[in-house]
Design brief:
The complex is a heterodimer. Chain A is α+β, with helices and mostly antiparallel strands. Helix content of chain A is 30%, strand content 26%. Chain A has a single domain, classed as ApbE-like domains (T-fold). Chain A starts with a strand and ends with a strand. Chain B contains 8 helices and 35 strands. Helices cover 14% and strands 33% of the residues of chain B. Classes of the chains: A alpha+beta, B alpha+beta.
Amino acid sequence: MTGPVARRVGGRLYLQHGPIDIVAAAIGAEDAVERAYAAGALRFSTILGELCAELPLLRRPICGDARPALSEAGRRMWDAAAVYAAGCFITPMAAVAGAVADEICEVMRAIPGVSRVYVNNGGDAALWLGQGASLDVGIVARVDRPEIVAKARISAGAGVRGVATSGWRGRSFSLGIADAVTVFAGSGAAADAAATVIANAVNLPGHEAISRMPASVLQPDSDLGGIAVTVGVGRLSAADVEHALQRGEDVARKLVRQRHIVAAALFLDGSCRVVPDDAEIQRKQFFSEEKNQKTFVPEAAAGSVPWAGSWDVAKQKRRLFLRGGGRCLRFACASA
Amino acid sequence: MSESADKIRCMACPVLCYIRNGMTGACDRYANHDGALVRVDPHILLKRTLDHEGAVVPFAARGDWHGELVSGDQPFVTAIGAGTTYPDYKPAPFIISAEVDGVDMVTVVTEGIFSYCGVKVKIDTDRHLGGECAVVRADGEPVGHVTTGEYGSQMLSLGGVNHLTHGSKAEGRATCAALLDLCNKKPVELAIDGGATVIVQSGAAPVVNGVREERMRVGCGSASIGMFARQWLGLADEVVVVDDHITGVLSEHQAGKLLGVRETGIRIGGRRSTPGRYFNVAAPGTGWGGTNLSDPLEIVGGFDRGKAWPGLRLFMVSTTGENAAYYELDAALRPVACAMPRALAESAELVKENCEPALCSVLFMGGAGGSLRAGATENPVRLTQSVRDCLTRVTCGGAPVFIWPGGGITFMVDVSLLPDGAFGYVPTPALVAPIEFSMRLDDYRAMGGHMSQMRAIESLGPEHRLLVAAEKRNPWPLLPQGGGA
């Protein structure tokens, strides 16, 4: 069995253990950054083991039960998912990536002298911005075409501490057909769970162009069991696309109203919806969208993280981009 | 790793995923490949081997290798999976020092991002694939063109910066995808404007308009007459070797004259070049000998009454021996198809046997730009000079390369000599290809190498690495130059 890896990659910290790939950065005084990276690496060294010990509990759907005794990361997952338990099938695993990012972010930002932190766990990220700081985020709608399709500037005070992306083309299974749903929320775990729920809602039940397969067939120990997940989306009419996006937008709108999330951007087949769509909020505060932004940001290449070769799996996901960094490309960070 | 039915349990990390065949685990890093746990994106090291060829040691699966040296032989660190520091102006990901036969050697290992790259494809076929300069398309997008016809082969030139980055976005994407698959030894369907559709795969026979090409011609029709004239003597009175380039006629050919073959008065269409050699007998196509003929008699314009005779035996064969027919002239001197005598059928087989299996070969061509070279030395031009002076050897995934004379480091490599999946891409679009520069430590120091970034080969652990047997046809990259590149 291979253990956790913590490595400095350029000015950033790369953490990897099993399925977790993190690119993290702290900005601040030099010695503070060093201490933040040491703290992040230390916290990271045990986190996968802690979660794996709780896997049987975390893979179970939440249905009104009281929260069992869990590790700190497990508790974050449970709480983030519990919000949706009344309305749909959900397990704490929906928030695993964001919760891990939150855990690492917390210990890094606690170091005095650090002014900004982001912890990008394969596209699900936690961040912390000191007073007056801001962070630019690039959104990649399709992992097989890693281009930045939109950018957002997050400012301190916007209440955003987590950014997460979900969609059937990504690593995790989705019940919906969105290429990507990116959510901005109060924590990584909250953003992660909400992105999953909204991406599931972007859907056209029974549509013949959509192929689905039971999750357990694809991954025997998936927490989704026999639930059908999306494995292919054929040609959709413009009306289909708008209809599916509308379903997702309705859910996103509700979550914004209930203050579970701050904002969301939904992508499907070249179309995009942004919630809330108040032009003032989009442009001035935290979400500046540049739809025709086509620049590939090599910043996300994470220095010497190796390029992946190609590999065909059942989902026909062709992994032709950066290992680790490739997943991070769903969320490219650049200093504002 | 434990197994049950079609799934295996991955023990690489505490998640302990069950992975079905053809799928990856939760990490997307380990996969079940026909029941074996394999690493999907490892950094490839080559192992010198004499006994077995191309055997892949699955990373971390069977504990074959844990980073120790293999029977005293050091592995060669390829750039496959090594990553890149592009576009940063900083040292290459790996600068490896190793002692080889008492000499300190350095290998600079990096994956290059090649916007300036393409492939040259040689397709062993006489069939007409398309006119020179005709546009070659993949997924409907122009990705290259048909270039000069060569001996027994049609040549395509694909990719290059004009298709990759100067065309439309869709064109760049289609070009990049076609190049990537060709370089990774996968089949690619190419449609040629005004010509054929051909499936090309390095090391495999071409498939032209759905028909697999079997043989590469041994020579043109005229050459075949020369080579096989003696075999046909006494078996037929006239032999026509049908070929789109030069169709040969035995009785008129120099070889026939020397053997005393009697004139038959046969009239062949097209344009006579020299006795017994005809150009343009038909249009190019995918029929007999690269013509558009399915009935070879279409090129026979009859027989001279003064010279031919009833019962004259006419044998027609294509230049690869794949098509053959036998006729005898009736009283009106018209050819009538007859059962072919066994000896003639055997002669067609002989022609065929002398034609080698038709293959597609793919050469990747790329130019190592300044920033890539900067990864090796603070003064990029010094690396070029060192390569020119044969002090630095360039390899691509451990395979020897041909370096074009002239400026820059523009090289070509036979992709069949690289391990599988050695190429990648970035959406710029551009191809990612491995490249290694090996030289003596002294020479590296002299060119202003990044000495402080050097690490001993022994310091490379097994983490993320896969040890693969070196391709037997390649010279060992770290041996003194002489053979090979």
